[in-house]
Design goal:
3 helices; 29% helix; single chain; alpha+beta
Length: 173
């Protein structure tokens, strides 16, 4: 059973599956957050929630986007790693500056299916699904670009762990 309630703030975790922009009846935008077992509504934009999550882990959305560009050259609708250590990789459904931009957690996706019109259905590993206003081709592209970025970043991290295991940066004393 899902809990549906308002939260004044939200912290992205490895349980976060999607951070969805939703249009309210009064025309304002809020955010619906899907976790594996719960659902929340937050009055911050999806990109603000992602930015806050990046800041929690010592960067910012802009910093993570710059990192993606440096690693694999993706500059538009760039996938990001909120925290590679816990596998939190997200991609935007449109430009993050667009108020209708939603963010999807790459590791929770089980299947992407062509929806009606220019919509796409995302089926998560826990069998929940959502319908997004993004074309099937664009969604597949975002999933594949995130997989490429994830592979490249994870390999860099593993390389450093394997080649510097005996070296530790100590604080200046």
């Amino acid at each position: 059973m899902l809990d549906n309630f308002y939260s004044p703030s939200y912290e992205v975790t490895p349980l976060t599956m999607a951070i969805l922009a939703q249009q309210n009846e009064n025309g304002s935008t809020s955010t619906r957050i899907l976790e594996e077992q719960e659902e929340y509504s937050v009055h911050h934009s999806p990109s603000k929630i992602i930015d806050n999550a990046c800041k929690f882990f010592g960067s910012s959305l802009r910093g993570r986007q710059d990192g993606t560009k440096g690693i694999c050259g993706i500059t538009h609708k760039a996938p990001i790693s909120v925290d590679p250590g816990s596998g939190m990789y997200f991609f935007p459904t449109t430009s993050p500056t667009n108020p209708k931009c939603s963010w999807i957690a790459h590791s929770h996706i089980n299947q992407v299916v062509q929806g009606p019109g220019r919509q796409t259905e995302v089926i998560f590993k826990n069998h929940k699904s959502i319908l997004l206003d993004i074309s099937f081709g664009s969604m597949l592209n975002q999933v594949q670009r995130t997989a490429q970025y994830r592979y490249l970043l994870d390999n860099r991290i593993k390389y450093l762990q394997n080649h510097t295991a005996d070296k530790v940066a100590e604080p200046f004393a």
